[in-house]
């Protein structure tokens, strides 16, 4: 059974509240889970202690059983000092989209054409 430690969304529309849960990866996001491990309230200030609450012992137990933390939960665990900070590499993140690249190319072509016309 592939286990995940992930967020399950609760709360009403535009008022999110998340539970940190240990769940089978095949279950839906807000569906069945095995154990509630903590809570996350993104509406609270970042320096608030109530923003992220975790049962660290149970999280370490599930990690020891082979559960994988999702990216967002892994970041919370890194901030809490539960797991070592991992290197993330997304080289495509800073690359502009296709349309932005096309606009930049057109702008460069126009500038080159204007420079050629100015020389003659």
TrEMBL record:
Top-level taxon in the UniProt lineage: Bacteria
Gene3D superfamilies, A to Z: 3.30.1320.10
InterPro entries linked: Ribosomal_bS16, Ribosomal_bS16_dom_sf
GO cellular component, as recorded: cytoplasm; small ribosomal subunit
Annotated segments matching region Disordered: 83-120
Composition bias type Basic and acidic residues, residue spans: 99-110
Pfam families: Ribosomal_S16 (PF00886)
GO biological process, one term: translation
GO molecular function per UniProt: structural constituent of ribosome
NCBIfam families per record: S16
PANTHER family reported for this sequence: 30S RIBOSOMAL PROTEIN S16, SMALL RIBOSOMAL SUBUNIT PROTEIN BS16M
Family to which this protein belongs: Belongs to the bacterial ribosomal protein bS16 family.
Name the UniProt record assigns to this protein: Small ribosomal subunit protein bS16
Source species of the chain: Ruegeria sp. PrR005
Gene this chain is encoded by: rpsP
């Amino acid at each position: 059974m592939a286990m995940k430690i992930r967020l399950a969304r609760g709360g009403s529309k535009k008022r999110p509240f998340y539970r940190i849960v240990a769940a089978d990866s095949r279950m839906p996001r807000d569906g069945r889970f095995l154990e509630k491990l903590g809570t996350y309230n993104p509406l609270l200030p970042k320096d608030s202690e109530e923003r992220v609450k975790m049962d660290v012992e149970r999280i370490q137990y599930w990690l020891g059983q082979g559960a994988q933390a999702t990216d967002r939960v892994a970041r919370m665990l890194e901030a809490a000092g539960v797991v070592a900070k991992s290197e993330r590499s997304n080289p495509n993140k800073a690359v502009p989209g296709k349309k932005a690249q096309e606009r930049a190319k057109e702008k460069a072509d126009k500038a080159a054409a204007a420079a050629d016309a100015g020389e003659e």
